[in-house]
Amino acid sequence: MAALLLRRLAGTHRGRVPLGAAAAAACGGATLFYASSSPTVAHLEETGKAAEQVALNPDKWLEFKLQEKATVSHNSQLFRFSFDPSTKLGLDVASCLITRAPIGEEAEGRRKYVIRPYTPISDPDSKGYFDLLIKVYPDGKMSQYFASLKPGDVVEVKGPIEKLRYNPNMKKQIGMIAGGSGITPMLQVVRAILKNPNDNTQMIYCSKENWIDLPVAILTSRYFIQLINRQLTGGVVLVLYQRTWF
């Protein structure tokens, strides 16, 4: 099923695209949450900008319904959550959101929660949905909770947490090193660069594992073809796609 969903992703990046491939990872700490959140409706109104309705709320836990999920590997699952199709999530590139799930009760009878931050892998400009891919650990309280979800179930979410505010051409070169699912915030930056024809940031992309198929699937066909064309026409983007690079 995951392979089919990955193939379906190779279309346009606009609108409601099919559930895609990527990875989810924790990004920053909760202490950054109130100090550096993305512009909310209130923030935009204060700065005189046109208010844009977003799904996230930095001060309130909101429920998001699971639309569909797929198994990507023996220990990773991909989740798509839906919301009002006329609104964006309200997340900047490489930013995170916080999720929480009930795991029992405290001694006083109050509900007990586990809380984890994740980086959505869907395009921040997408409307009506966001995607997470989560590595499921045998003893992971939150990841096991996600694994138990069925379409129609809900997860409580708050955010955003801004970890890196990326601006086009902010740096001539960007070096990003990640292990496993930690590549997720990097993929957000890569996607933002490739979407902008005026962004001349230089990138070198390589991996020693077959897992490279996963991020490459995000770039196909529109992104990967665009990237190749930019290189062949004198652009500055270079992708090294070799299974045995190291």
Overall description:
The protein is globular and about 55 Å long. The relative contact order is 0.19. It has helices at residues 2-9, 41-46, 141-148, 184-195, 213-219, 222-232, and strands at 62-73, 76-82, 96-105, 111-118, 129-135, 154-161, 203-205, 237-239. The strands form 2 sheets. Strands 4-3-6-1-2-5 form a 6-stranded antiparallel β-sheet. The two termini are 31 Å apart. Residues 1-49, 209-215, 217-226 and 232-246 have low confidence and may be disordered. It contains 6 helices and 8 strands; from the N terminus they run ααβββββαβαβααβ. The protein has one domain (2-239): Elongation Factor Tu (Ef-tu), domain 3. The chain has 246 residues and is an alpha+beta fold. β1 (62-73) and β2 form a beta hairpin.
Provide keyphrases for this structure.
246 residues, globular, Elongation Factor Tu (Ef-tu), domain 3, two-stranded parallel ribbon, disordered N terminus, 6 helices, alpha+beta, disordered C terminus, 6-stranded antiparallel beta sheet
